[in-house]
Write a structure and sequence with these properties.
Elements lengths: L1 H23 L14 E2 L8 E3 L2 E6 L2 E3 L16 E2 L1 E2 L8 E4 L8 H8 L3 E2 L2 E2 L2 E2 L4 E7 L2 E2 L13 E8 L1
Parallel strand pairs: 3-13
Antiparallel strand pairs: 1-5, 2-7, 3-4, 6-7, 8-9, 9-10, 11-12, 11-13
Length: 163
């Protein structure tokens, strides 16, 4: 009888713990790119890196304007700038980071922007049997998509186009 009682108690404890985990877990596991959490006060901060890749998005032949002030004074960084941000609509991305070990990926910028991008998605477009998402870095097709680590002066073009 003691063995049965111990198993019942263990089962109740496990069940309560599991239910608590399910209720309290909001499903947000955080970003896969630590640079997303960077918030700097300004250009006077001590920065390990400060460089500028350029991003161009073309949807069905039409250039999409990348907004100014992406990653500046947003909910995550209300009085500063995220590790990747924009100042204007030119497509010039500003990578400003206090630790040179942080990777500035294309996907991290899209996460900061609040938009979707990977090998099958760009903004609100989804690849299908007739259309594809293609990325070029410095004129050469690149298959790393969201995981591509940007470098200074990179010319990145993402296209949604007919196959």
């Amino acid at each position: 009888m003691d063995e049965v009682k111990a198993l019942l108690i263990a089962g109740v404890i496990f069940t309560v713990g599991f239910v608590g985990y399910v209720i309290l877990d909001d499903g947000d596991e955080g970003s896969q790119w630590p640079i997303v959490d960077v918030c700097i006060g300004g250009h006077s901060d001590s920065l390990a890196d400060h460089y500028h890749p350029f991003l161009n998005i073309v949807i069905d032949g039409n250039v999409v304007e990348i907004p100014s002030n992406v990653g500046i004074d947003d909910d995550h960084c209300p009085n500063g700038m995220r590790g990747i941000h924009t100042h204007d609509e030119s497509g010039k991305l500003h990578v400003e980071i206090p630790d040179s070990d942080l990777d500035a990926t294309v996907g991290a910028f899209f996460e900061i922007w609040g938009m979707e991008f990977d090998e099958t998605h760009i903004l609100n477009k989804v690849a299908n049997e007739g259309n594809e998402v293609v990325m070029f870095v410095n004129g050469i097709q690149n298959y790393e998509y969201q995981d591509y680590v940007m470098e200074d002066g990179d010319q990145i073009e993402i296209r949604y186009q007919a196959k």
